C-alpha cells in the first residue's frame, strides 16, 4: 500500500513538474493497463528540468535502485554489467538523456508484482 501511495504521489509530482514547464511542453501521459503500468513521456526540456532538480534524490529515498529499471540508449556511456545490471543513479540516467539536444525519457510506474518487482522504469531516447 505504501508503494502504491508513493507511486501515485511520484506520478503526480512528475506530472506537476511537467505542467510547470508550460502548457506547450506538458508531458504526454501513457497508460498501458495490459502491461500493468502508467507513465509519462517527458520532452527534452522536462527531462533536463527533472534531472537537475530534487526529484531524482527524493525518489531514490523511497524506491531503492534495485527496484528501478533503466532502458538505456544503445550509445549510452553508463556502465552495464554482463548480467544487464545498470550501475547508475536515477539522476545519471536522466542527466545523460538531457545532455543530448533532443534527449528525452519515458518514465513508467509499474503495478505491484509486475515487471520483476520493479517499481519504476526509465527509458532513454535521443537521435543526436
Summarize this structure as a short list of keywords or feature phrases:
five-stranded mixed beta sheet, alpha+beta, 128 residues
Q: Biggest sheet: strands side by side, in what order?
A: 1-2-4-5-3
Spans of 5+ residues with little confidence (pLDDT < 50)? none
Total domain units: 1
- State the helix count: 4
- Give the integer mean of the pLDDT values: 86
% residues in beta strands: 15-25%
Major sheet size, sense and barrel closure: 5 strands, mixed
What's the total count of β strands? 5
Could you tell me the radius of gyration in angstroms?
A: 14 Å
Structural class of the helices, strands and pairings?
Answer: alpha+beta
How far the N terminus sits from the C terminus, by CA atoms, comes to: 41 Å
Shape descriptor reads: globular
Which percent bin holds the helix content? Answer: 25-40%
Strand and helix map with partners:
Elements: H1 2-20, E1 28-32, E2 37-42, H2 44-52, H3 55-62, E3 68-71, H4 90-98, E4 104-110, E5 120-125
Parallel strand pairs: 3-5
Antiparallel strand pairs: 1-2, 2-4, 4-5
Can you characterise this structure?
The chain is of the alpha+beta class. It has helices spanning 2-20, 44-52, 55-62, 90-98, and strands at 28-32, 37-42, 68-71, 104-110, 120-125. The chain has one domain (2-125). Helices cover 35% and strands 22% of the residues. A five-stranded mixed β-sheet has the order 1-2-4-5-3, covered by helices on one side. 26% of the residues are buried.
